[in-house]
Amino acid sequence: MLLSLVGFSQSQAPRIIQPKYGFHEVKVGFNALRSARTVLGSGKNMHEAELSLGINRWNGVFDFGTEKNERSGGYSYENKGTYLRAGIDRNFIQKVRSGNVLALGLRYARASFEDQLVYSIEDVGFGNQEIDLSNSDLKARWLELNFTLRGKITSQLYTGFTLRWKFSRKVSGEGSLQTFDIPGFGNTKRQNATSFDYYVMWRVPLR
To answer: Quick count: other Cβ atoms within 10 Å of Cβ 79?
Structure first.
C-alpha cells in the first residue's frame, strides 16, 4: 500500500510549464554613422548608444544620444543637447534565436537642448551691431516609424541599418529665436524628417 501511495503521488506531480514569452537576448551597440560624421569633422559632434531586449519575436529598443551642431556663414549658430528614444519592433525572422532582425517598429522620442544665434548687421552712423539670440531650455518630442535590418557578422557581432520616418514633431521653449536643429530629429525646415542610421551591436544570448 505504501509503494502504491508513493507511485500515485509521483504520477500526480505538477508539470513545469515553460513560459511562451521570455527574454532570450540583449544587444548593446552604437550608431557608427553618427560617430563617423563626428570624426570626419562635418561641424557635428554626435554619439548614440542603443540597447535592444529580445522577447520572442518582439524587441524592446532604447536609444540615448548626444548631439552638437555648429553652422556659420555670415552668422554663428550652435545647437546642443541630448535625446532619448523608446519603442518596440516586430521581428519577422522566424528563427529569432539566430539574433538576426528584419523588423518594423514604432518609437517615441524626446530631446532636451539649447541653441544660440549670433550675427551682425550694419547700422548707418553706429557701425556694426551684433545681435545675440538664444534659447536655454528647449524641449521637443516626436514619433517614428522604423524599418530595421541586422545580420550576424561573426560570433556575437551584428551590424545593420535602421531607416526612420519622423513625424508629429512638437517643440516648446522657443523665444524670439526659432530653433534650426533638434538633436536626434534633424533640421526643422520640414515638419517630418527621414534618416538612415548604421549600427554595430554585440549580442548576449540569455537562453
So the answer is: 22
Residues paired with 66 in a beta bridge: 47, 82
CA 20 to CA 120: how far, in whole Å? 65
Tell me which amino acid residue 121 is. I
Alpha-carbon distances of 152 from 39, 157, 202, rounded to whole Å: 26, 6, 10
Q: Cβ distance 183 to 113 under 8 Å? A: yes
56 torsion bin: left (phi>0), alpha (psi -120 to 50), beta (else): left
Q: Which three cell numbers stand for residue 83?
A: 535625446
Mean pLDDT computed over every residue of the chain: 88
The sign of the torsion formed by the CA atoms of 152, 153, 158, 163 equals: negative
Residue range 123-143: average pLDDT? 86
Q: Where are the domains of the chain?
A: 21-72+81-112+140-173+189-205
Query: Dihedrals φ, ψ of 201, to 5°?
Result: -125, 145
Where residue 182 falls among pLDDT bands split at 50, 70, 90?
Answer: very high
Domain boundaries 21-72+81-112+140-173+189-205, CATH class: mainly beta
**76-114 pLDDT tens trace:** 999 999 999 999 999 999 888 899 999 999 999 999 999
DSSP state of 126: T
